[in-house]
Design goal:
Layout (H helix, E strand, L loop, with lengths): L17 H6 L1 H16 L4 E2 L9 H4 L7 E5 L19 H13 L19 E5 L4 E2 L13 H18 L4 E5 L6 H4 L6 E5 L11 H20 L1 H4 L12
Length: about 240
């Protein structure tokens, strides 16, 4: 039996993301109907395993998000750019590793492409298009081919994240996702942009900039509210080792 997007929602009807999935119920139902129709008409939809679509929300609660990393297309792990251990490291992850090695003292390049450990430290991995058209020998795939379908849902997600932490850093990597935050009208946000991870990604300094932003927030909290506030999870810098 073909998997449907709507069938993946029930586990999120309770828990930290419940209000987001409740608010986006009609939006998700619409996406599910459209994608089911596409598949019935013979279009392949990625990921094939529909449970991966909402994988980022299994790993982190909105109240613990301090960084949102936004990519353009689904990955084998369900997390933007991240690759499950055991699968080959992609060129994108190699570029990310190189930038980490260049900017983070003592960073050791791992032999895998799994970035999910950062979720425990407050990184939410999203894609601008949670599904995409599967390429065939006749039709090219497109990273953001379903992007417009998912924008209403992503608006609910990012609005909830911002409401939970006004200091969250929104990071977009690649031209396909560069304008998403403007499209969603989130207002004045902490935003970093860089090319899609590859040769042009080198020198973006995003990992250092994120930690400097968190350090500045920590100093501001310590000055305003005292040292106890400055020790909060949302103000802790990220250990980028994998």
């Amino acid at each position: 039996m073909r998997q449907r997007v709507i069938d993946q929602v029930s586990e999120f009807e309770a828990g930290p993301w419940a209000s987001v999935f409740a608010a986006a119920q009609k939006d998700i139902a619409f996406v599910s109907r459209v994608l089911s129709t596409k598949e019935e008409e013979g279009e392949g939809v990625l990921p094939h395993d529909k449970s991966l679509i909402f994988e980022p929300f299994r790993l982190i609660a909105p109240s613990r998000v301090k960084v949102v990393v936004l990519g353009s297309s689904p990955s084998p792990s369900g997390l933007a750019f991240s690759v499950p251990q055991g699968l080959p490291v992609t060129p994108e992850v190699t570029a990310i590793h190189r930038e980490l090695s260049r900017t983070i003292p003592g960073f050791s390049i791992p032999t895998h492409g799994d970035l999910s450990a950062w979720s425990e430290q407050g990184v939410l991995f999203l894609t601008a298009s949670l599904t995409s058209r599967e390429p065939t020998y006749k039709v090219r795939g497109s990273a953001c081919s379903h992007g417009a379908l998912w924008y209403p849902f992503l608006s609910h997600v990012l609005t909830e994240v911002l409401a939970s932490n006004k200091n969250v850093v929104f990071v977009s990597w690649g031209p396909a996702v560069r304008d998403l935050f403007s499209t969603l009208s989130l207002g004045d946000i902490n935003r970093l942009e860089a090319p899609h991870p590859g040769p042009a990604f080198a020198g973006c300094d995003h990992f250092d900039k994120i930690n400097r932003h968190l350090a500045n927030c920590e100093r501001a909290a310590a000055k305003k509210l005292g040292d106890e506030a400055a020790r909060g999870f949302l103000l802790q810098q990220i250990d980028w080792q994998l």
